[in-house]
Amino acid sequence: MKPFRRRSALEQHSLHFGPNMTPMVDVVMVILVFFMVSAAFVGPEWFITALLPQPAQSAPSEQTNPQGQGNVPPPSPSTQPLRLTFTLQYSAATGATLFTGEGLTDAPFEQFETKLTELTKGLPKDELASKLEMLLEPQASVPTRDVVRAHELATKLGVVRVGYSTP
C-alpha cells in the first residue's frame, strides 16, 4: 500500500475553479452604501405633488394646496372640463363589448363611435384638448383590444384626456 502523497501548490490551485466572487460583493456593497447615503438627501421637493379631490367642506370657496401654502380658488364652471363617462361590459351572448353612458345603453362599438363623433363634432381642436375628457370604466371581462379601440377612437377625434377607472 502506497502512503498518501503531498500535493504541490499547482495541484492544489487546480482543484479550485469558478470566478472569484469577492470583488463583485465589494462593488455591490459600495453601490448599496451609495444609494443609502443619497436617499438621505432626497427631500419633499423631489416628490410629485397631486391635487387630490378634497372631501366636502362647509365653506367650499377655497381649498388649501398640498404643500399647505396659501389657498387655491375653486375652478370656475368655464374652466372645469366636460367629462364623458362610458362603462364597458362584455356580453358573452353576443361576444361583443357594450357601451353604457352619455345616452347609450348597452350599445355596440359602432353606436359608441357615432355618439362620440356627435359629441365632439363642431368643437375646435384646442377646446377638445383642454375642455373635454373621457373616462372609460371597463369591467374585468372586457377584452383589452376593445378598450384600446375606444381609446384610439377618442384620440382620433381629438380627445386627448382619456382615463381609465374600475366601475
Description:
By secondary structure, this protein is an alpha/beta fold. Among the domains are: 9-39; 82-164, Nucleotidyltransferase, domain 5 (2-Layer Sandwich), CATH 3.30.420.270. Helix content is 34%, strand content 21%. It is built from five helices and seven strands, in the order ααβββββααβαβ. The chain has helices spanning 9-14, 22-39, 109-120, 125-131, 144-157, and strands spanning 63-64, 71-72, 82-91, 96-101, 104-107, 132-138, 161-164. The strands form two sheets. Strands 5-4-3-6-7 form a five-stranded mixed beta sheet. Helix 5 links the parallel strand 6 (132-138) and strand 7 (161-164). Helix 3 runs parallel beside helix 5 (144-157). 8% of the residues are buried. The mean pLDDT is 80.
SSE inventory with pairings:
Elements: H1 9-14, H2 22-39, E1 63-64, E2 71-72, E3 82-91, E4 96-101, E5 104-107, H3 109-120, H4 125-131, E6 132-138, H5 144-157, E7 161-164
Parallel strand pairs: 3-6, 6-7
Antiparallel strand pairs: 1-2, 3-4, 4-5
Helix pairs in contact: 3-5
Structural class: alpha/beta
Radius of gyration: 31 Å
> What is the number of E strands?
7
General shape: elongated
What proportion of the residues form beta strands (DSSP E)? Answer: 15-25%
CATH topology title of the domain at 82-164: Nucleotidyltransferase, domain 5
Secondary-structure element order, as H and E?
Answer: HHEEEEEHHEHE
Distance between the termini: 85 Å
Helicity range: 25-40%
Number of helices: 5
Which CATH architecture of the domain at 82-164 is right?
Answer: 2-Layer Sandwich
Sheet with most strands: strand arrangement: 5-4-3-6-7
